[in-house]
Amino acid sequence: MSATPTVTAPGKHRAGPVRLEAQYDPALSRWLWLVKWLLAVPHYIVLAFLWLGLVLVTFVAFFAVLITGRYPRALFDYTAGVLRWTWRVEYYAYGSLATDRYPPFSLREVADYPAHLDIAYPEHLSRGLVLVKSWLLILPQLLVVGLFTGGVRLNVGLTGLIAFYAGVTLLFTGHYPRGMHDLNIGLHRWAARVLVYGLLLTDVYPPYRLDQGDREPLD
User: Fold this and answer.
1) Is the pLDDT assigned to residue 24 strictly greater than 80?
2) Helix H segments across the chain?
3) Residue 38 phi/psi, 5° resolution?
4) Model-level pTM?
5) Which terminus of the chain, N or C, has less C-beta within 10 A?
6) How far is CA 12 from CA 7, 120, 187, 189, 204, in A?
7) Domain ranges, ordered by start, for the chain
């Protein structure tokens, strides 16, 4: 007897390996966003070194997956931690400007911080896919993501523009528009899925789908 297929309810999607979420805060400072470029400098300095380490870790992980079919857990946790830290800084600073709470200096998940990124650890990865997914298979997604980020994590495209408009609106009205927040988070969510795939952390190809709002879609 064949197994009964799982049916996804209308308006819902299967849960993916990447979960990027953020809590909307309607009470933000009108002016603080004007100086966050300065306040975030310590994070930018630390992240520059962490991303250098991430490049080395990904290089080592490539051969580990190619030979064993597994991404070493310690290396996975490091990479996921760098992406998590980066997302918190983006949410605070000019990727979103959507929180005034200063990001923690930590690779670990911080439960009470308003921005979260979780990546499911894969017990097995394809040895064949690792040869092509980070440069060939990911290319169509990079072209799409580049249109709204200016690069996978540069925030000089649509995401940065939305954040700037939201900041100006906040300055004059004291209110961060909810629609801008939801769209911004959706764009970051899409970019995060692409980045995770390109960094070899999953074999699940990113969907061409804009999931807006605080929470990931239900499975």
Assistant:
1) yes
2) 36-39, 41-68, 73-92, 139-149, 158-173, 178-198
3) -80, -45
4) 0.91
5) N
6) 10, 19, 18, 16, 18
7) 18-198
